[in-house]
Amino acid sequence: MRPVRAYRAMLILLSILAVTGCNGNGNGSGITGSGYLYKDLPVADGSAMAGDGHNVLFKGHPLAMGGIGIRVGDPLRDVKLTQTDLSLVSILETKGTGKVRIISVVPSLDTKVCEQQTHFLSEKNKGLDKMVELITVSVDTPFAQKRFADEAKIRNVTFLSDYRDAAFGKTYGLYLKDPHILARAVMVIDADNKVRHLQITPELAQLPNMDEAFQVARSLIRAS
């Protein structure tokens, strides 16, 4: 990467972390049993497209996505991610394979939007965690993911790291090239490893509609 582009990428990443830092105050909308204070964060309306030639925005600034875009109806593509114990696992062969799974994709767990998205996945699923596998994917290191899960007291989410070479991001068209992070997204996968729901937030600072993803997951369970 050229020095100017690398400097620009670093500025973008620092801006993301500064604006969405997990220590920001914001208005709370409820404290859970874990002690997490939910904030009044915007939820995205609609979805961006994945893959080369598409982008998402950060405060109106376009960030290009790279890779072959995934679409609703596509089968999952084989790619290996790192678990918190440092072992590799294929996204096709996680512990929830063979049943419905929800994959929450976040840029970095050390931001308040990603933090809230992950808490929402864990705490607001209304019992879905007993029937489906909940997965969070980010480029954070496995050590950072384990620290986050321990501090947040999250035990019902599988954390998978794409830190090695962003292979997941590139394979699914969710790789943001310059900041070297993933776009924000939520996917619902059926028992046959097919994508049945996908939302990529057009603005990186917005949450995906997790309730909609939960509804799709429940409808798949009822139909099975």
Description:
- The structure is a single chain.
- Strands 6-5-9-8-7-12-13 form a seven-stranded mixed sheet, with helices on one face. Strands 3-4-10-11 form a four-stranded antiparallel sheet.
- It contains five helices and 13 strands.
- It is an alpha+beta fold and 224 residues long.
- What separation lies between the terminal Cα atoms? 48 Å
Q: What is the number of beta strands?
A: 13
How much helix is in the residues? 25-40%
Low-confidence stretches: 17-28
Strand order in space, largest sheet: 6-5-9-8-7-12-13
> What is the N-to-C succession of helices and strands?
HEEEEEEEHEHEHEEEEH
List the helices and strands and how they pair.
Layout (H helix, E strand, L loop, with lengths): L2 H17 L8 E4 L5 E3 L15 E4 L2 E6 L13 E4 L4 E3 L10 E5 L6 H12 L9 E6 L3 H11 L4 E5 L5 H6 L2 E2 L4 E2 L2 E5 L5 E6 L9 H14 L1
Parallel strand pairs: 7-8, 8-9
Antiparallel strand pairs: 1-2, 3-4, 4-10, 5-6, 5-9, 7-12, 10-11, 12-13
What brief labels describe this structure?
single chain; four-stranded antiparallel β-sheet; 224 residues
Quick overview:
The protein has 224 residues and is α+β, with helices and mostly antiparallel strands.
